[in-house]
Amino acid sequence: MGGLGRDAWAWLGVVAVMLLAQLAGASHVVYENHLDLEAAAAAVPPSIVDPQLRPGYHFQPPKNWINDPNAPLYYKGWYHFFYQYNPRGAVWGNIVWAHSVSRDLINWVALEPAIEPSIPSDQYGCWSGSATMLPDGTPAIMYTGIDRPGVSYQVQNVAYPRNRSDPLLREWVKPGYNPIIVPEGGINATQFRDPTTAWRAGGRWRLLVGSVAAAGGGGARGAAFVYRSRDFLRWARVRRPLHSAPTGMWECPDFYPVEAAGRREGLDTSVPGRPRVKYVLKNSLDLRRYDYYTVGTYDRRAERYVPDDPAGDECRLRYDYGNFYASKTFYDPARRRRVLWGWANESDTTADDVAKGWAGIQAIPRTVWLDPSGKQLLQWPVEEVDALRGKSVTLKGRVLKPGQHLEVTGLQTAQADVEVSFEVPTVAGAEPLDPALAHDAERLCGARGADVVGGVGPFGLWVLASADRRERTAVFFRVFRAAAGGKPVVLMCSDPTKSSLNPNLYKPTFAGFVDTDISNGRISLRSLIDRSVVESFGAGGETCILSRVYPSLAIGKNARLYAFNNGKADVKVSRLKAWEMRKPLMNGA
Ligand SMILES: *[C@@H]1O[C@H](CO)[C@@H](O)[C@H](O)[C@H]1NC(C)=O
Ligand SMILES: *[C@@H]1O[C@H](CO)[C@@H](O)[C@H](O)[C@H]1NC(C)=O
Ligand SMILES: *[C@H]1O[C@@H](CO)[C@H](O)[C@@H](O)[C@@H]1NC(C)=O
């Protein structure tokens, strides 16, 4: 909490008052979908509503539904974060832009909602959007408004701060000339949303809007349309989209430059054209509900983006192979990095959410940069999260024989950060890779889960485990034999099938391949464990998986942490360090 200024503390007081007012009004909450609250509460095991299952250091408001991150930005010493929020309940609806501010991306103070329905072009909804920093330092927010009842007819609006001297940007004004962009020229108005941060090149602004291109034969093609403007007022569409692919609707596009391979520094979205700069295009696939990206080049004369890997459009790369959607990056000028925000939904039922009174969190913000291979991004939790680390335990040089596990004792691990380095003496015993599953990590993990004995691996962590290990969430690696001339294939997997005795949960195995060379024997894993969140980073951020799990036994003091080896070869835990994590200021929650 050290970094908070006096302003923040003053605001905290205001927030506390707001909170109390909200609580006092809670009995008047009406849920739109007429769920029977008492029946819902009776039907779920008590663990679901146990406050000990509420995350401690992941971003969340005190209550209610949240979804997409919106318009993250840095202004006059403050990080601003907006998000889709239902002020009236724990299910989607009544969406406004909630607003929080922070000095460090970890301690958050809630302000009044920034953008709410108030003008004809947003009166039926204020949906997602992004911020752009204008050359004079003013932030502008572009967002999707719903302008008629019944059908979600989508237009794009702009809003500006009322008082630029206010570092907290508390009030936003919507100019009378809204909307600034409407669907025309054959665009389907119900699939036209989520404007990106605008970038400027050659005297012109550009931004993207997610949509579908006219389907020519096959299924609908996801598309990112480019709009250009000289004055930030009048916007005209470029006929051909920046890019499109046969995936269905693209929501929440994000498009940004990254430094040449391996350099961790971020670039401003309006970076002047430089030969070695690469671009990342990310889309949230409405049909699959995951975020996919490609790395490529941007030709700003032709206004086209081309992925380096022609197969990239087949949805090869994800930021995160777990629950992570509608993400958005921003350039942080204070630390010259690009930071990624993403929404993680719940894995319980809607009735559970209503009983709990809240649904949805944001992943820990991650720094993103291009991997030295140039083929994918690396991601790592922003360094500020390390300030929450408290009591720690370190283990070194412990060999796990086949079938062995090792408990990490001496600290509570329901809310913890673990970094572990594994060493495999040889990969000679790795199991063969079924060619039918060689491109489908998720199915591979489903078939070869944490309890299926392998050659090299599965090895990794059991987190949020009960003392008898009936409940445990496995985060692990599994090594497959190399194809002729290739390197061994490493799978990273999150297996929650035993995460809870509660049967009514969504427990998918999540998995991704890890682009690393394990023949040198080493691989690392970091897991941010937060009561009902397991957010893991394999091989220094090559592959990331966020899972939401709801233990019924492994709650609070009863949550344990183990390293395990279920392979036929020895695995060494060369070093494991675990920290208890403190709770930051979290919007008064
Ligand atoms: C604008 O914000 C500054 C800084 O918070 C404040 O001192 C000033 O009174 C505000 N002006 C108006 C017109 O609200
Ligand atoms: C527009 O999109 C909606 C889905 O949001 C779809 O139901 C409808 O058929 C589409 N209209 C046309 C003309 O393609
Ligand atoms: C998160 O919840 C699960 C389980 O209900 C759904 O299957 C996912 O589609 C959902 N994800 C998103 C992004 O909505």
UniProtKB/TrEMBL annotation:
GO molecular function terms attached to this record: hydrolase activity, hydrolyzing O-glycosyl compounds
Q: Name one GO biological process term.
A: carbohydrate metabolic process
The taxonomic lineage of its organism, from the top, reads:
Eukaryota, Viridiplantae, Streptophyta, Embryophyta, Tracheophyta
Q: Which residues form the Glycosyl hydrolase family 32 C-terminal domain?
A: 384-580
Instruction: Give the organism, scientific name.
Output: Panicum virgatum (Blackwell switchgrass)
Q: What is this protein called?
A: Beta-fructofuranosidase
- Span of domain Glycosyl hydrolase family 32 N-terminal: 58-381
Question: What keywords sit in the KW lines?
Answer: Glycoprotein, Glycosidase, Hydrolase, Signal
Question: What PROSITE patterns is this protein classified in?
Answer: GLYCOSYL_HYDROL_F32
| UniProt signal peptide | 1-26
Give the family from UniProt: Belongs to the glycosyl hydrolase 32 family.
Q: Which Pfam families match?
A: Glyco_hydro_32C (PF08244), Glyco_hydro_32N (PF00251)
InterPro entries attached to this UniProt entry:
ConA-like_dom_sf (IPR013320), Fructan_Metab_Enzymes (IPR050551), Glyco_hydro_32 (IPR001362), Glyco_hydro_32_AS (IPR018053), Glyco_hydro_32_C (IPR013189), Glyco_hydro_32_N (IPR013148), Glyco_hydro_beta-prop_sf (IPR023296)
CDD domains the UniProt entry points to: GH32_Fruct1-like
